[in-house]
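Holo prediction. Input below; ligand is aspartic acid.
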Amino acid sequence: MKSWQLIFILLVSVSLCVSQSHGDEPTFSIAIHGGAGSKPHLMDAETKATYESAMKDALTQGKAILESGGTALDAVEKVIVLLEDNPLFNAGQGAVFNADGKHELDASIMNGSDLSCGAVAGVKTVKNPIGLARKVMTETRHVLLATDGAEAFADQLGSDKIPRVENSYFTTPKRKMQLERRRTKRKASQASPPSSTNPAYVCFDDPLIGTVGCVALDKHGNLAAGTSTGGMSNKRFGRVGDSPVVGAGTYADNKTCAVSGTGIGEEYIRKSVAYNVAAQMQYANATLENAVKDNLENRLNPNDGGLIAVDKDGNIAVGTNTAGMLHGIADGKGQFKVAW
Ligand code: ASP
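Structure of the complex:
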């Protein structure tokens, strides 16, 4: 085995953390992520602490919903709305820019009890894309609405249900700087073709992270998953990643698990990563831990991204094949942790 392969395997296994469920009493579990590719060693202590406190706050609120008997879907939506409203993250306010200097946002949510799901792609004026995704799930017969069609659906629901903003609401100075850095890099390597290993096309050589996701098991035994993002900085306009693609960036099925991914969306779509975790559990009897590990080690490429997942018994698995992934986990047994 080559030394880089060994380092990669060690990286994945070290970052894979698993929490076990105990007994049969109704319990709950929740995991959240704030994007793969985090490089905490490049951050100053204050920035790190700000991210951690935002994650703790969101985790606390998600946990409170589950603890009091609320649904996994409500917990997932609430956590993601909080992170979308926080300009630190690449979701809602704070979303990255596309190559045209605009923000196009994607989100999805899935209910493991009946496989109902909803998603929106390329929305430009919806303050909380996860809220609109949930309405697509509950108030249409469709799964995914994109761009103008999604905006028209939001118009129809009204701004009291779906708050609207100017596209500039999503702008933050750090994302402007990130776009400039990315444009410069892109120019410098125009000769090389797009690929997931060409730094000009990936966002993970940049310490600004921030796609958000949440997976939860509630006390009624229902699983839910959701993911929200501004996508990849300097993406082509109209580009849609994995986050609103059910089966790629998000999946939930009460028979197995709930999954949210973060990373190079094209790879998650090609490999149906979120669904594959569930499928390995259902058809190959894999444990949650092994299914997550297999996707990170054997299906995705090194540095593609990370996953959070919770299974029907309340086990939690968190892993990444990037330098880090800001995440948090909590459960009914008193576990509560935020880490990179
Ligand atoms: N997966 C997201 C996308 O490709 C990006 C990310 O997770 O950072 O749009």
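The radius of gyration is 18 Å. That is the main takeaway for now.
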